[in-house]
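Residues determine shape. Take a concrete instance:
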Amino acid sequence: MSYLEQDNSAILSQQAGRESNARTYPRHLPLAIREAQGVTVTDMDGNEYYDCLAGAGTLALGHNHPRIVEAMERTLETSRPLHTLDISTPAKERFVDSLFESLPDEFSERAKVQFCSPAGTDAVEAALKLVKTATGNRSILGFQGAYHGMTSGALSLMGDTDAKEPIPGLMNEVHHLPFPYDYRCPFGVGGETGHRIGSDYVENLLDDDESGITDPAGMILEPVQGEGGTIPSPDAWLREIRRITRERDIPLILDEIQAGLGRTGETYAFEHAGIIPDVVTLSKAIGGGLPLAVVVYDEELDVWEPGAHAGTFRGNQLAMAAGEATIDYVLENDLDAHAANAGARLREHLESTAEQFGSIGDVRGRGLMLGVEFVDTDADWQGPGPHAPDGDFAAAVQAECFDRGLIVELGGRESATARFLPPLIVSVSQIDEIAAIFEEAVAAVTKTDAEPAEVAA
């Protein structure tokens, strides 16, 4: 029997028997995908799902978008090279044209680009090497709650210690600073006061000769923390961080791997704050669904020697063709504005759900990068601020969503935040249906939790 004739259970069983124990998504999203189109996927049993995971934000135009398919077919049909290391081609130059066109002029006019190995974490590693080489310094400033990938250097930047504790040899000197998580403010106050204290803390720390922090090679942050729970940084805070780093000649690296290319309602999330970074790491959406990662940075930092950073698969021509098509489509069709409007509609639905159920502590995000944090209102919570995050409730909601035809992922503290990353082409009617399914799922879990446990005879 061919795999196309098998059902979900058969393929999942085979996967479990052959793949690493590190596999993640199939454990809580138990499907094998047969077909995918636009915002939906269909499994081997014929069940259809709205895909609000979308390759962790990779599929900006959804599955099998005609513009991307056409670009890849054209590349394959014309005997173009598929793998060129860092040797240039017309496809590569067109991709860089489109990439630079998508960036603010003030940045792109001074920009250099480094193609990396194909994952976002490879771009982060390259960015770290870049600023360390340019400054001659070794330490890096990161933020609590951050996620920048799963390679060694990227792991050292992560706020979550579980993923890095078993791994020896994380020798990068990283200092984790407080991120302005408004709902769970690290200073216990939240709002404008909280993020002002946060930026003042960073500035005072950097000016303190007894802080224990050596001269930093750079600072890296996500304008919207993704895996950390869909936490947007306030515009005023980000502007202050830009001022602080600029005045102290600390290169500012912005990780736009998940938030970039229209998802947050601007082409890039840092544009909400009106700042210009020194370095931007990009992957996911810019490859049109295929593996591609780049670092774009100010030419002043371009001091490394030839061959200082390489990678065999940095010449993925098919990804560059797909990426060019994606970037051009996003810009031509103002998908950033659509993401802002569709995201506002989805957020309104989610906030309406939150008003009905006390288990929802916070709804947040930007554009089509939204999160819903679940809390345990019954727990004996002794800490400051809101109730404890409730990962069990979130997992139950995720399962109920899946049973009803909606794929959402979890993240944040205790994996208690349901995250929405639908393709940017999602329609208004699809937004309404996604929100309705989610509300039904929350209601179902709430009802189950409220039912008295059966007493054994």
Remarks:
- The longest strand covers residues 360-366.
